[in-house]
Amino acid sequence: MVAKGHLGNAFSFKRHLIKQHRQLNYVVEVDPFERDELPIADRRDDSSDDGEAEVEDGGNGQDDWEEFSEEDLRERTLMLVCKLKASSSVTQSTISTVVEDVSQHFEDAVFNLQESTRKFLRNHNVDMGDESALKLMDQFEMFQKPFSGIETEYKQMQYLIASKKFVAPVEEEIILGYAPRTDALTGDVLQIPTPRVFHYVPVKQNIKAVVESPGFWECVEKHSKSTDGIITDFQDGEHCLSHPVLHGDDCNLSV
Q1: Cα–Cα distance between 162 and 151 in angstroms, integer?
Q2: Which of 79, 161, 177, 251 has the greatest CB tally within 10 Å of its CB?
Q3: Residue 167: strand, helix, or coil
């Protein structure tokens, strides 16, 4: 499924950047022999005050998560649905049940956490009309409904198509068949004409979705072909050079 692949790669790359590259210009140096007994919070280089401040300001990732929007929540939630849809053993009724139960679970859990936070702030004389407090409460309300806007299969499909990260399958009729149906009044078995259809994902639209994905053409422009004949990738390898479709002026795979 194209949507599952694109969303999965995007979220995986984003998590990697947040977790592994929070301070690109500063490396925490730790002597495992002399300072292994120190708490984790104290295991950093004390030789530079600027470096320590940089870790405290840029290493916690709080700024990144403060920008977590409703759209981000919807995309992550839809990724869960796509994983379920990708499994051949999971029926649509099961997916609908999961969506309903998880929605109720999130609403109850987050509401409880919201009320506990509200009580804590009031006990510490925090003005609940303050902009920061109001923003925090809005965040709680947003996370109470992770499936907002994608509750049904139809809404999920419409959202995927609008996001341009999903190639909708094409339905084509191949033959007219007949399905037996029992008349409730007479008990007779009737043969009802029923078209037999199959679905396929268009190759051209699939390639187009990949080509138009962010960062694709940047990788193409940075690519340099090898001259030693060794298979380094799909574009300049021996398989590509010897293939009648992938190589040559008569290539018909134009995008």
Answers
A1: 16
A2: 79
A3: coil
